[in-house]
Amino acid sequence: MASRIHLSEHFTTRKLLRFTLPTIAMNIFASLYIVVDGFFVANFAGKSEFAAVTLIFPILNILGTIGYMFGVGGNALVAKTLGENDRERANRLFSLIVLASSVVGVLLMVLGFVFIPQVASMLGAEGKLLENSVLYGRIFILALPAWIWVYEFQLFFIAAEKPRLGLAITVITGLANVVLDALFLIGFKWGLAGAAAASALTQIVGGVFPLIYFSRKNDSVLRLVKPVWDVRSLVKSCINGTSEFMEEAAGSFVGVFYNVQLLKYAGEDGVVVYGLLMYLSLIFSAIFVGYSNGIGPVVSYHYGARNYLELKTLRIRSLKIIGVASLAMFVLSEVLARPFSALFLQDGGKLLSDAVHAFRIFSFAYLFTGMAVFGSAFFTALSNGVVSALIAFLRTFVFELGAVLLLPLFLGVDGIWSSVVYAEFMAAATGCIFMAALQKKYHY
Length: 444
Prior knowledge:
The chain is an all-alpha fold. The chain has helices at residues 13-44, 47-64, 66-83, 87-122, 127-140, 144-159, 163-187, 191-215, 231-265, 267-304, 308-344, 350-362, 366-381, 385-411, 413-437, 439-442. The longest helix is centred in the middle third of the chain and has 38 residues, at 267-304.
């Protein structure tokens, strides 16, 4: 069995991949929860139900990714504190962040349950689409506090030097999701309600188990203890994690506008095709996000330890890894366009052809997504939440939102599929500019 890799070590390319691979796999499996739901809903509930999930899920995801904010920002702060050799304070900060996220999760769950009908109606849902959206949303949101734990504990397992345990938990909960979906939809024939219940129970399993692990004595570097009430550090971790939260949540927010535009230009079928694009994008983007999250604590640690030579090496090797992965994702997306679409659209026909056409355009975005994600995450790891947030803000609220609103006026539906390509290219370029401009400041 390979020995545990510590944050303080020198990272070769091989060791870097070994350390980040569990986090990449963890993110992929976490994304597969959603994809599995989509597969079962599309094939065992119906096309209209699939459209309802695609419509309401971006709203649910915005709420869930609050955990990402606490996890990313808190992870950087805790890892930096560990790098400063203050383990006791690191554990108290870790505990404070988990407590705060739990309180926020309960409040958002209550508010979300009450206002989901109004939100779905504002998105343009009517009749059966509105009914199905509310049904799925209200069942799923009951597990929101646990979903927030899933997001943040995925990241804290890295700082705890236990990425493999995080991966194991993610795999187990992912398999549980498949079993529950099959049982509820195929066995019990509960339809859309069954899919929502399966997802909710999966999040509870994935969130509660790490909570129990960190609450007990363990052999990691982190443990839940009596939290220190440190408002300044809590606010700082939230601000630092705002960029990644904004990146995730804003992506979902922009997804709402995609659905609105697609209902206008292509009807319910357009929303179905967008759902397919997002499912594959979740898996592919998870690779880039997983790598960036995996290397984040390493960057934070060496920055806190003032090991600038290692910091420079980490940046250069990361850019090479991301470049190779980006090209591979583009090629793979082009190859998988038809078989992946056919997996969800087994009846074929025009809708399948439309989906494949959309994939051919959308695939070009993967050439730039890796750099767009890493650029923002790198500055989060350096505790520069302002630059990180700016990159994330421009990527979604300026480049992508602007494109999805304007390009369809000239290119129709193809303008919607092209919006992500434009946004990712611009975000990658922005990240490169900031990385070059701040090189002397951070000595990388």
